[in-house]
Amino acid sequence: MRKTTHALQPDLTDYQKIIRLIQGLHHIHPEPMRAAHYQKLAAYLPYPPLEELEQRFDSWTNLLQEAGVIAEGQLTPAELSTLNRPKPGTGPKKRWTVEQSIAHYVETYGTRVTIKRYSDLRETERRMVSSNTIIRHYGTWKNALEQFALSSNGCFTNEDCLNGLRQAADELGDRLTSQTYARWAREHQAPSLTLLIERFSSWREAVRYYEAHDFEA
User: Fold this and answer.
1) Can you tell me the mean pLDDT for 65-90?
2) What whole-number distance in Å separates Cα of residue 17 and Cα of residue 67?
3) Residues 42 and 87 sit within 8 Å (Cβ to Cβ)
4) pTM of the model
5) What span, in angstroms and rounded, lies between the C-alpha atoms of 142 and 169?
6) Whole-number Å distance between alpha carbons of 149 and 147
7) Rounded to the nearest 5 degrees, what angle is found at the Cα of 52, between the Cα atoms of 104 and 63?
8) Which residues contact 5 (CB under 8 A, 6 or more apart)?
9) What digits encode the pLDDT tens for the residues 134-189?
């Protein structure tokens, strides 16, 4: 099933990517797929949400026709209705736009936007679009954040970086390495290893600066 996502080439238009996706799914599921079935897949895989496809193509069956899965007039009105029917109990909440989703995150947590924290918030507010949808719109998570003048590193100062390194050293002791710090930083929402390297030119320099700074304090 995941092979269908690999076939989506980055130079295709968004429309072409959707058509290719539906055609690829049809090869796996010879019978025309129901909207409810696709909706279930999209909840676990990086596919566009059903609501987004319905807005773009007016209905699920219209999309199937565009992709050549079914022909116009091939199915009865009752069969079309069955294919179009979404999973029970999923409406009528309308999914937010990317802009609304990002705004909700900023109001809740501020301007430091990580994929993990965004996804955690989405567990409590399902109207937010998924991080995969945002990445699909902008190419990468970093590109998306740049569009909204946000950062996954937030406004960490050099002092914040040193304090994070100090706390990690206190907890990890002799086990402190660049690898153990990277894991620790992810678990504690601390300045990332990448940010430390950006600020101090290397992991070794960051540690050296921290030790000198700590000694002076």
Assistant:
1) 81
2) 11
3) no
4) 0.41
5) 29
6) 6
7) 175
8) 21, 45, 46, 47
9) 888 888 888 888 888 787 765 677 888 888 899 999 999 999 999 999 888 878 77
